[in-house]
Every structure is written in C-alpha cells, then in structure tokens.
Amino acid sequence: MSVAFTALDWIWVGLFLALMIGSGVLFYRLGRRSESDFFLAGRGLPWWLPASSVYATHTATDTPMWITGVIYQHGMAGIWYTFFSAWAAISSFVSTRIFRRSLAYTQAEWNVVRFTGLGAELLRGWMAGWQFFMNMFVLGWVGIAMGKICAFLFGWPVWVGLVAFSLVCAIYVLAAGYWGVVMADFQQGIIAFLVILIVSFWGISVAGGPAGIIAKLTALGALDRMNPFAFTGWWSGSFPTAWFVTMLVIALLGGFGMGTTVDWYVEAQRIQSARTVRDASYSIWWGTVLGLVRNSVWAVSILAFFVLFPGLTETAEYEMGWFRLGFDYLPVGMVGFFFAAILAIHLSTISSHLNLGALYATRDLYQHYVNPKASEAQLILVGRVSTVILLFGSFFYGLMMEDLTSWLIFALWIMAAGIWLPNILQVVWWRFNAWGYLSAWIANLGFSWLVVWILPALGVIPEIPDYQQFWLLMVLGALVYLPVTFLTRPENMDHLVRYYVQSRPLGWWGPVRSEAARRGLLLPASAVHAGSTSG
Amino acid sequence: MALIRRSWTAHEADEWTREDWVAIAISPTCYVLLTIGLALSLLLQTSGYVMLAAGIVLTVLMHYVIDPKLRAVSAEYERKQQAYLNQLEAQVRWKDTDSEDL
Questions:
Q1: I want to staple A295 with a disulfide (CB 3.0 to 4.6 A). Which of A82, A123, A146, A358 is the partner?
Q2: Which residues of A touch B45 (CB under 8 A)?
Q3: Which residues of B touch A214 (CB under 8 A)?
C-alpha cells in the first residue's frame, strides 16, 4: 500500500516535529543544571507529568500491531495479553512507594541501597550493563517497526524510517534530557490518545457501529469473540484458563516486587522524578490505567477491522489492521494528522529509552565505577555521549533485528520468568541477600536455556507452553537461590536497619524492625496503636 | 474505631495498615472492571455499563481510603529527603556511609 499525502498532511507532520524539537530547546537550560535534572527533572514533577510519560512511553509503534494481532486471533479474550501491565495495580501502593523512598536513580542503584558488599556491587554492575543493552535493543526494536510502517506507507527503504525519526528525537533528548522527554511525552500522550480515539471510533463507525459489528459477528458465527472470558478449556487449546491464571499471578502479585516485568525499569525513572511518594504512586496508577483504557478502545476497533476483513491468515497482514483503519478510511487532510500521531507514539518511546539507557551508563557505570569525583558538567556530558552511543547502537540492532528477534525475545523472557519470585523476595524478605539474588539471575540464565531450548531439543522433556515454562523455571530457580541464601551470611544489620528506616518495606522484616526499634529509630508499636484508637 | 481511618500522623502512616491492604485489594479490581467494562460498554453491552460504573465507584473509593495516608507519608518523608539524598551521593562516590548515624 502507498498513501498519498496532500500539502495539509505534510503541514501536520512539520508542525508536530517543530513542536517536539521546540520543547527540547525550551527546556535546555533546565536539563543542563545537574545530573538530577538531566535524568530525573530534578525530582520535582507533579504526578500527572510522569503519568503521561508512563502512558506515552508504553504506547509504541509496535503496540497497536501486537494488540491487533492478539485481538484478531482470539477476539476480546486477547485483551488479557495486554493485562501484564496491571502489575502497577499493587505496585503503585507497595513497591512504587518503597522504591521512591529509596531515592535510587535506577534499579541497579537500588541494589546497593538494599544489599551490601561485593554481591551488591556485582548486582549493580550487571544490571546497569544489562539495562544499557536492553534499552539499545528496545530502541532498535521500536525503530525498525517505524521503518516498516514508513516502508508500508511510502515505499521508503526500511532504514530511512528507522534512522530519520530517531535522529529527530535525539535532538531534544540530547538538549534537555529527561525534562525534554517528559514535556514532549505530555504533548505526545495527548495527541496519541486523541488520535487513537478518532481512528478507532472512525473504524467502528465504518463497520456499522457497535450494532453493525455484533450483527456481522453473528453472521460470521463468531459472536464469542465479544466474550473476554472465551477460553479454550482449563489446560487445552491455544488459550487455556491456566494461561490466564498464570498471567494474573505474574501481573498482579508481581506488583509486590521490583523488576517483575521489563516495564518496571522504565517506570523506576518516572517514580523517582515524582516530587513526593504520593505523586509517585498516582503517576504509576493513572499512567497504567490510561494504557489499559486505550487497549479497550483498540480492542473494539480491531473487532471492527475483523468484521471488515475476516479470514486473514497472514500475521503480517492482520497486524497492520488498526493502521489500515486510519489510512484506508480517514478523510483527506486527516491522514497527515494520523501520521503525526504515529510519530508521537514513536518519539515518546524512543526518547524515554535513549534517556534511560544513558542514565544507567552515566550514574551506575561511569560515575560509580569510572569517575566517582565527576562534576555535574562532566556527568551531563557523559549522559549526552551515552545517548549518542545508544542511538547509533540502536541503528545497528534495528537493521539486524530480523535475525535477532527470537534470540532477543528469549533475552526478555529471561528477565521475567525465573527471577520473578526473587524480584519479590528482595522487597518483602529481610533474609534474602545479594548472593541469593545474584545466584537467581545466574541460575535463571542456565535453566531458561535448558527448559526452553536444549532439553526439548534432546527429547529429555517435551516442549511445553510458555506459562508452564514459567512455573517450572520458578521452581528450578528456587532450588538454587534458597540454599545459596541460607548458606551465606545475612546482609549487614546496620545497613538493613538504615534501609528499613528509610524505605519501610512491607513483608517479613521482623528482626530488622526489632533492631531499629531497639535503637530508638521507630515509634513503639504501642504508641502507634494508641494513635490508631484515638484517630 | 472507624472502619477506614482518614486522619494520620506521619509516624502512624509509616506503618502498613488495613487501609493499605484495602487499596491493594481494590486496585486490581478497578483495573479489571475499567478495562473490560469500557470495552463491553463500547459494544453497548449492559454488563459493560455495570462493570464500568463499578470500576469508577471503586476507583473513587480506593482514593478515599488511601489518599490521606499517602499525604501523611509524603509530608513526613519529604522533610527527611535531603539527608537521604546526601547519603546516596556519598554511596555513589564510594564514601563509606554505613558507620554514620542513621
């Protein structure tokens, strides 16, 4: 397909790009004040700004493609695939609150706030390096999706869309750092949400409105596609209830931990940029709910696409469904506005990952390990150089992505499966130490290769669905990290007491709490209860 | 004692209490009801309207329960924040902070 742009369409695109670059210039002076400004906007944002950034960052160019894919395949039940982001439901009031109080710039830095000694430093170094790589990978992944959309629309070579718009984005990220990211995200979030509503409702209208969609689904014998609980049995079929339960456990209970999903690492930066603990909690809660509501609107519009184009079997064909609703049906002059919104979706994700990857490189690698005496000006310079390295690295990854996809999806899986429970234990259990956590990472690396690829290939175990792999990896990992935890010493009590008093974690912290109380660092429980009865 | 407490001192708010657990229970329910409720409402389903309305009511209730506590926690914590930030900067620059007073 090739879309014809009128002059009005190009004016929309030009205006939008000018607005984005303008915001970088506008906040340049704020971004260069300090490391805290360049990466956390000075920790002074009201909740709605990081909330809009949470929403905008997690609305990427590939998001409508994969949501279209799962809804087209499974009907409304496919919406549960998007429910992984619901970890924020509990996290907003538990781990977000605890992490905000730690004040750690990154999840890597949190390791040395929570743990001590060599183990903590190894964790910090490993996580910082891993996250630098992961952000480069995500930039390449999202960038190549933009390249494919531009190829689809204009017939451009794939690299043009990848390189051109990431370069534009880098201008305001380099200039203003996180100030530029979050201010642009706010505008991009509004534009993207508005256009998602316009295109989706336009598509629903083209399909005959809700009544028309239901009538056509009935005629196709596919009315169960409206049922969000249309599973294929408890254990059998392509969409079993057991998968649904596993997803709910991963998503919801994961909110008690930190890093239980890949999104946490992005949200950690937004949490620390909020001006208070309360602002941090609401930024995560409301940013996520906006994303979930957006998914609901998308899901209904994909049902509209399904009744307009039923029977598509090629993934590459139906994954573009939501884009087709916009480009095929919007009136002349609005197509450019739609493309500008796609740019908004794209730039918000690119900018966040450029700045986040640079944060890990600057704070955790350069400042902590290379030049601890670095001045603020040096740190900002390193932040900008890291941004450029990430940018060019993402071009490399993006253009290799076709070959790397399966390997890198596996890399993402590593982060989620076997260390899901350790990510919770590190928050809720005082006795869990750095060596236990480190061993969990290492064990998961080995076990996930064995369970996902090697043992099935050798015929030792059958190939099992991903939700069963999750439970198996969780049990296998525990066989390693629990003995390691108990065979190594607990963390230093002085350090734990300091951490407890500062962060007030939820869970099994009895000995640490008792020690903190003994030192007079907490009000006696009786005083608290007396206050409760009179309050 | 009131079922839901809305007046907190900073020290009291630092404890994990029933109000936190109420918010922890209601919050995921809100997410499910708002997500599914809105989708089904857009398809003009009665069940969707009911779920969406329930989701909005529970969202308001959740904020009613947890907001006073979050305000109290924040007010107290922001007062101490600068000292904690100084500790963090010392840590990133390899200055030993464990021996300092808490």
A1: A82
A2: 226
A3: 43-44
* Shortest CA distance from A252: residue in chain B: B28
Please, what's the b/e burial string for A249-274 (b: 16 or more CB within 10 A of its CB; e: otherwise)? Answer: ebbbbbbbbbbbbbbbbbbbbbbbbb
- The chain B residue lying nearest A108, using CA atoms, is B92
Q: Cα–Cα distances in Å, from A322 out to A205, A286, A297, A305?
A: 14, 25, 11, 7
Query: DSSP secondary structure string, A91-113?
Result: HTTTHHHHHHHH--SSHHHHHHH
Q: Do B35 and A295 touch (CB under 8 A)?
A: yes
Is the pTM here over 0.90, yes or no? yes
The Cα–Cα gap between A391 and A230 comes to 43
- Shortest distance between the Cα of B22 and any Cα of chain A, in A, equals 10
The closest CB to that of A93, out of B27, B43, B99, belongs to B27
Question: Mind listing the pLDDT tens digit of every residue in chain A (535 residues)?
Answer: 567 788 888 888 898 888 888 877 788 888 889 999 999 999 999 999 999 999 998 888 888 988 999 999 999 999 998 888 899 999 999 999 999 999 999 999 999 999 999 999 999 999 999 999 999 988 998 898 899 889 888 889 989 999 999 999 999 999 999 999 999 999 989 989 999 999 999 999 999 999 999 999 999 999 999 999 988 888 888 789 998 998 899 889 999 999 998 899 999 999 999 999 999 999 999 999 999 999 999 999 999 999 999 989 888 888 889 999 998 898 888 888 889 889 988 999 999 999 999 999 999 999 999 999 999 999 999 999 999 999 999 999 888 876 555 665 666 665 678 899 999 999 999 999 999 999 999 999 889 888 888 898 999 888 888 888 889 999 999 999 999 999 999 999 999 999 999 999 999 999 999 999 999 888 644 454 444 433 3
